[in-house]
Amino acid sequence: MPKRLLITISACLIGVSLASYAEEPAEKLELKNGGMLYVHPDGTGRMVDQHGKRVEMLPGSEMTLKDGRLVMMKNKTIWIGIGSPGDGHMGLKND
Questions:
Q1: Distance linking the first and last C-alpha atoms of the chain
Q2: Rounded to an integer, what distance in angstroms lies between the CA atom of residue 49 and that of residue 56?
Q3: Per the count of CB atoms within 10 A, which of 37, 45, 47, 55 is most buried?
Q4: Adjacent-strand bridge partners of 39
Q5: Contact 27/71 with Cβ under 8 angstroms?
Q6: Per-residue pLDDT in tens (0 to 9) along the chain, 95 residues
Q7: DSSP per residue over 21-68, as a string?
Q8: For the chain, which domains are there?
């Protein structure tokens, strides 16, 4: 078997195996102010403003989703309001 063919086949197999370990896509949650919150499967997240610029999420600060639910970041984990808006119950996003 020619060396080039062997290298090409090896590269393809490595690419396929790495693709199977790819991270799940983040869930997109639209904020009331026009920004977007990306929540990863492990419960962590990142936020961008309406222009796509990354925004720092300060621990304990509340953000409001477009549907009225409250979102808070605690210990680098996203907490989302459970139940009707304003009832004060929060739950981990990765539950």
A1: 51
A2: 10
A3: 37
A4: 27, 45
A5: no
A6: 577 766 777 666 566 554 444 556 788 999 999 999 998 888 888 899 999 999 888 888 888 899 888 888 887 788 887 766 555 555 555 54
A7: TPPPPPEEEEBTTS-EEEE-TTS-EEEE-TTS-EE---TT-EEEBTTS
A8: 24-92 (2.40.10.300)
pLDDT at 95: 46
- Give me the count of residues in the chain: 95
Residue type, 30: E
* Residue 28, amino acid: K
Contacts of 58 (CB under 8 A, 6+ apart): 73
Q: CA geometry: angle at 56 spanning 68 and 52, to 5°?
A: 75
